[in-house]
Specification:
Layout lengths: L13 E6 L5 H12 L3 E2 L9 H6 L1 H26 L3 E4 L5 H10 L5 H15 L7 E6 L2 H11 L9 H18 L5 E5 L6 H14 L4 E2 L8
Parallel strand pairs: 1-3, 1-4, 2-3, 4-5, 5-6
Length: 222
């Protein structure tokens, strides 16, 4: 984003919520959508026909799951752009590559399949407009693991701490890279309590920042 340009009003923003499994993306997406009057686009979980198989036998279903999610998220991404008027997206299409690379590093996704996935993503990205802003909910792998256990989704019962640590490493690389082209606000989600305050933080940081920022914010209400 050119720092000399006047930023879009929040009512027209395409806001992506990024973060680890169990970081609280859906909660923040819902709250920001309500507060800003923006439609919310949730991550395809309940109707994901590959997810249960992926967690049951990750190596066998890794490639199929990644392609499925890439297709669904591309469809969602394009809908936000073509409908106009902004929106809040629960996990961006760019994060799919984070999961794919983590699977390669763990030996759960074949290098050949990964190259095919990346090539497809690059072709699709030629038809995509970037989000106005990405909010990164920063949680540790240990906290992510704890939250996954607490929400007790059956399909997530096989998520390991090792997997989450690998994922977190790739997320840090992803955020550093994406911040070169899309404004990113990093938020310690454990400190979030009030959506109105959070919306003000988003507005303040977006209006005055072009690149990665750690939101300097302490909630006034617990």
């Amino acid at each position: 984003m050119d720092a000399q340009k006047t930023p879009q009003p929040l009512s027209d923003l395409f806001i992506g919520i990024a973060g680890m499994i169990g970081a609280g993306k859906s909660t923040l997406a819902r709250a920001l959508g309500e507060h800003l009057g923006l439609p919310v686009y949730y991550e395809p979980v309940e109707d994901n026909e590959y997810l249960a198989d992926f967690y049951r036998d990750t190596q066998r279903y890794a490639f199929a799951t990644q392609i499925y999610l890439l297709n669904r998220r591309f469809q969602q991404h394009q809908e936000i752009i073509w409908r106009g008027g902004g929106g809040v997206q629960d996990r961006t299409i760019y994060e799919d590559a984070v999961f794919a690379k983590s699977l390669v590093n763990l030996g759960l996704l074949d290098e050949r399949d990964y190259r095919t996935y990346v090539a497809l993503f690059r072709h699709m990205s030629n038809f995509m407009c970037r989000p106005s802003l990405i909010i990164y909910l920063d949680v540790t792998p240990e906290r992510s693991f704890e939250r996954v256990r607490l929400r007790t989704r059956d399909v997530e019962s096989g998520v390991s701490l090792e997997y989450l640590k690998a994922l977190h490493t790739e997320y840090e690389r992803f955020i550093e890279d994406i911040a070169r082209t899309v404004p990113v606000i990093r938020v310690d989600w454990d400190r979030f309590h009030d959506v109105e305050e959070m919306a003000r933080v988003v507005e303040r940081e977006y209006l005055h920042s072009s690149f990665l920022r750690n939101a300097q914010w302490a909630p006034t209400r617990g």
